[in-house]
Each structure stands twice: as C-alpha cells, then as structure tokens.
C-alpha cells in the first residue's frame, strides 16, 4: 500500500477519482499561525482553508504550532507527510448517506515550540502572517501568573495567553508597532466569548510584565480578537477501520481524520475585522456554513436550545427505557416522535431572535446528526452532569414556553421527570451515585453536592417529595421552580407514572396528544 506523499499518491498509487484535492503548493505564503495540531482543527478550520485554496479564493498556508507537551510524535508524522493528510466526512443529509473525502494540502509545516523555539519566534518576522487560529481546549484560555520572559528566553511561557503575549510583543518589536502587522485572532476553544477572554488575559500579562504602553495600545488598536461558535463532531483517527480506509483510499495515511458532514462556524467580529475576513477568507463563496456577525448570541442560543437541548431532554428517558446509544434511540419511532414534538412544538416556538426558517433548517439537521451511523454516542456519556446541563439547555425553554403560552410544555416537563428518575439512587460508590435499570446498576456522574442531594432525597422520600425538593432547590436552578403554577404537580405526576409503568408508557401518553 502506497503512503500519502505531497498530497497525491506515489506513482502506481490508488484511485483518487472520488477525492477532492486542493493544490499541493507549499510555496504559498504562510498567512495563518495555528495553535493546536489536534483532530478538530484539522477537520474544521484547516478543511475550510483548504477548500478556499482549492477554489482559488485564498492563497495562503497554515503553520501549525504544537502548543503544549514535549512529545513530538504527531508533529514528526505531520512533517514526514509534508503536512498533508486526509479528511473523511460521513453522515446523513436529508436522511440520505453522504461521504466526502479530501486531501488537505494547505499545512506547510508543524513546529514544536519546545524543540525549535527559534523557528517559532521567527514566524513573527513574516509580513504575510495575518490570522491566528487556536484550539487549546477549554483549559487553554486561563490566566496563570507567570514571570515575564527575558530577552534571551529559549522556552515559551507556560500558559497559552502568556505565549500569545510574548509572541505579540515580538511581532510589535519586529515591525516597530506597524498598524497593519497585528493579527485577527480566531480562537475555537469551547468557552463563551473566547476571543474577549483571551484579549483580557493578554492585556493583564502586558501590564504585569510592565511592557510599554505603546505596545498595549497596539494590541488594542491593531489586533482583532473574534469570538466564535464551532459546531462539528470530529471522531478523529478511525483506528478500528484503518485497513478498510487504506484499501478504499488506495494509500495509508497515519493522520487520517474522520468527522460528520454537518458544520457551522459563527465568528463574532468587529466591523473592520468582518470586512477584511469577508474579502480575504470568503467562506460563503466556497459554500461553507460560516457566518460573520456582530453578535453570535442568537446562534449560540440556537445550538444550546435545539441541539444540546434535544440531547438533554431525550437521552435520560431513552437510557431508562433500555437504550444505550443515540443511534439506538433514533431507531425507535416513539423517541423520534418525542423529539419532534419537543423540538418543533415546544423548543422552537419559545425561541426569539433567529428567523423561523433558520430554526427549522437547523432542527432538521439535528435528526440527520443523531441518526449518523458513523458516530456512536453513548447515552451515559452524554448524561454526565445532567443537572447543570438541564439548567442551561432545557429549563430556559420551559420557562419561555410558559411565559408565552401560560401553559407547560408536555415533552420538556416529562423530560424533567425523567431526569429525576435517572438520578434515583441510594448509594454512592467511587464518586458516583448508583442507579438501577432493569435490575442492573449504572453509574450517575455529577458533582458531589448533586449526588448527595439525590441520595438523601431518594432514601427518605417518594416521587412527590423528591420532585418538590428537586424543583425547589435554588442551588440547582437559581430559583424556586415550585413557584411556577402547576410545574411541580406535573413533574411529580410524570415521575410517579415513570416509576410505576416505565418511561416509554409515559411518553406514549403524550406523544399523540
């Protein structure tokens, strides 16, 4: 089997007719510095950039920086493959199977800043460099007190924001504070207002390190920190399917990354940054679902309420009914009907700020994503920390629905009861509350205070008392939910019926209503 080489197969390699291939031009100027070599960015932002290059809408390569750790295994593999790798996207569109395959050729090189600090710092001398992309995990954009790096430093600061501060100062010095040599930051870390948070920490470091006021002004005036919302499930290297992929593709790719077809990228930017990005990175022209906006809040709300809300409102009930994965849940028409009623009749009508056609289109995609046979989502994994998830994802829809209709949403109210039933356990072992499903135990994972609450309440009470205690727990919901007329009684009734007759019978009683 041939190995991937310079974006194409070696002579006599396999058939590439099914592949979309960008231009394997390593002579393109390096315009993007990327912190993070992981699967997500390589199947998300890097995929988009490669499509832009392939459509001749952009002419730039990506320099990837390994931001943490001294192990260079992945870095060495990427450089050995000249930065080239394959992305395979699989899923459903309008309930029909779709597969897209593309060799990514827009990564020029990968740097390990601990091994080659000088090469890393040299990137700041590149006048073409304009964008900085990052995904350093949720723990990456955090403040960590650190000493100011000295002029002869041979290692970077420990935290990501400190690395950026030092890098920006190097850039500032190299170009004497030129206004057009700042960066547009596109952070993809999964925290709210990620760019704003990064900027605040960078400025804090700049002040604590006593860097010149002129540099601080340059950071504020010549650099743009966007906030982003990212949405694509990336399943990574398909270790269980390696031989099948090698046979089908006709070559071996040690960097192969798989993901779902669906993608959405909202970038909240200033007017100036948005104008430049629309001209320089014309995502829309390439047919990509990327939105440049002055306010990403409606898109965040859409994702949390519909996609995340659909997960949280359904998976606990599905698990109690004997399902183990989202795929199994979607094979049961009763749960499909449950989801449809919950999303289209209760969640969407309670949402404001996003056009109805966009909400419906997004909701339709959720069903394709949940049915994707290539993604195996275990319900117990999704159930982690369900109380806080319910507060953020489902409770707001219940409250907004009630406010608009002076009535309670049936599906979401039942899902509240299913949550309480799922947390029915009387023993804590290995930091988990132990529940029972069909006589077999399962682990309920949440914070210690949440587990202790349900352990105590279920030991001492019945469905009515546990429902009332749960809804009145202000530490969970920041409010006493028993004050909402009828909610406590409705949840308690559903809970009694779930415990007596099973969750599927209770769902059947409302799905046809």
Structural summary, described in words:
The chain is an alpha/beta fold and 513 residues long. It has two domains: 2-263, Rossmann fold (3-Layer(aba) Sandwich); 298-511, N-(1-d-carboxylethyl)-l-norvaline Dehydrogenase, domain 2 (Orthogonal Bundle). It has a six-stranded parallel beta sheet. It is globular and about 70 Å long.
Topology:
Elements: E1 2-3, E2 20-21, E3 30-35, H1 39-43, H2 45-54, E4 61-66, H3 73-80, E5 85-93, E6 96-104, E7 107-112, H4 117-122, E8 131-134, H5 160-174, E9 184-187, H6 194-208, H7 213-222, E10 224-225, E11 227-231, E12 234-236, H8 242-249, E13 251-252, E14 257-260, E15 264-268, H9 271-280, E16 290-293, H10 297-320, H11 326-330, H12 333-347, H13 356-371, H14 379-382, H15 386-393, H16 395-405, H17 410-422, E17 425-429, E18 432-437, E19 440-444, H18 448-460, H19 463-471, H20 474-477, H21 487-501, H22 503-511
Parallel strand pairs: 1-13, 2-6, 3-4, 3-8, 4-7, 5-14, 8-9, 9-10, 15-16
Antiparallel strand pairs: 5-6, 11-15, 12-14, 17-18, 18-19
Helix pairs in contact: 5-6, 10-12, 10-13, 10-15, 10-17, 12-22, 17-21, 17-22, 19-21, 21-22
């Amino acid at each position: 089997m041939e190995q991937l080489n310079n974006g194409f197969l070696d002579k006599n390699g396999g058939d590439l007719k099914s592949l979309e291939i960008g231009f394997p031009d390593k002579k393109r100027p390096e315009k993007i510095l990327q912190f993070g070599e992981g699967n997500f960015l390589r199947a998300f932002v890097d995929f988009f950039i490669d499509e832009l290059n392939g459509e001749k809408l952009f002419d730039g390569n990506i320099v990837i920086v390994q931001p943490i750790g001294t192990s260079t295994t992945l870095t060495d593999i990427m450089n050995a493959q000249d930065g080239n790798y394959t992305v395979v996207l699989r899923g459903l569109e309008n309930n029909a199977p779709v597969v897209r395959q593309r060799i990514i050729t827009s990564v020029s090189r990968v740097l390990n800043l601990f091994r080659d600090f000088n090469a890393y710092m040299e990137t700041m001398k590149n006048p073409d460099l304009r964008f900085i992309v990052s995904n350093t995990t949720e723990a990456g954009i955090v403040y960590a007190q650190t000493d100011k790096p000295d002029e002869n430093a041979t290692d970077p600061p420990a935290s990501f924001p400190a690395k950026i501060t030092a890098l920006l100062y190097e850039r500032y010095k190299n170009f004497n504070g030129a206004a057009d040599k700042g960066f547009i930051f596109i952070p993809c870390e999964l925290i709210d207002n990620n760019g704003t948070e990064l900027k605040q920490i960078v400025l804090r470091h700049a002040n604590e390190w006593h860097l010149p006021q002129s540099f601080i002004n340059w950071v504020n005036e010549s650099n743009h920190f966007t906030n982003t919302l990212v949405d694509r499930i990336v399943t990574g290297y398909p270790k269980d399917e390696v031989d099948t992929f090698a046979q089908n593709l006709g070559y071996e790719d040690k960097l192969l990354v798989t993901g779902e077809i669906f993608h959405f990228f909202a970038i909240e930017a200033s007017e100036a940054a948005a104008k430049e990005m629309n001209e320089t990175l014309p995502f829309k022209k390439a047919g990509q679902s990327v939105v440049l906006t002055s306010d990403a809040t409606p898109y965040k709300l859409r994702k949390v309420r519909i996609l995340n809300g659909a997960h949280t409102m359904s998976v606990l009930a599905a698990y109690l009914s004997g399902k183990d994965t989202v795929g199994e849940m979607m094979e049961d028409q009763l749960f499909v009907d449950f989801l449809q009623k919950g999303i289209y009749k209760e969640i969407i009508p309670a949402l404001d700020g996003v056009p109805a056609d966009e909400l419906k289109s997004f909701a339709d995609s959720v069903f394709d994503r949940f049915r994707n046979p290539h993604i195996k989502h275990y319900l117990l994994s999704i159930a982690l920390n369900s109380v806080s998830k319910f507060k953020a994802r489902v409770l707001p829809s219940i409250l907004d629905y009630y406010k608009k209709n002076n009535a309670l949403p049936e599906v979401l109210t039942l899902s509240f009861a299913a949550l309480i039933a799922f947390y029915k356990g009387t023993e804590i072992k290995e930091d988990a509350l132990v529940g029972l499903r069909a006589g077999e135990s399962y682990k309920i994972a949440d914070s210690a205070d949440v587990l202790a609450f349900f352990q105590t309440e279920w030991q001492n009470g019945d469905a009515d008392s546990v429902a009332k205690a749960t809804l009145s727990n202000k530490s969970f919901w920041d409010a006493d939910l028993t004050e909402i007329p009828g909610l406590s009684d409705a949840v308690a009734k559903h809970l009694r019926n779930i415990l007596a007759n099973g969750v599927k019978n209770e769902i059947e009683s409302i799905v046809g209503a």
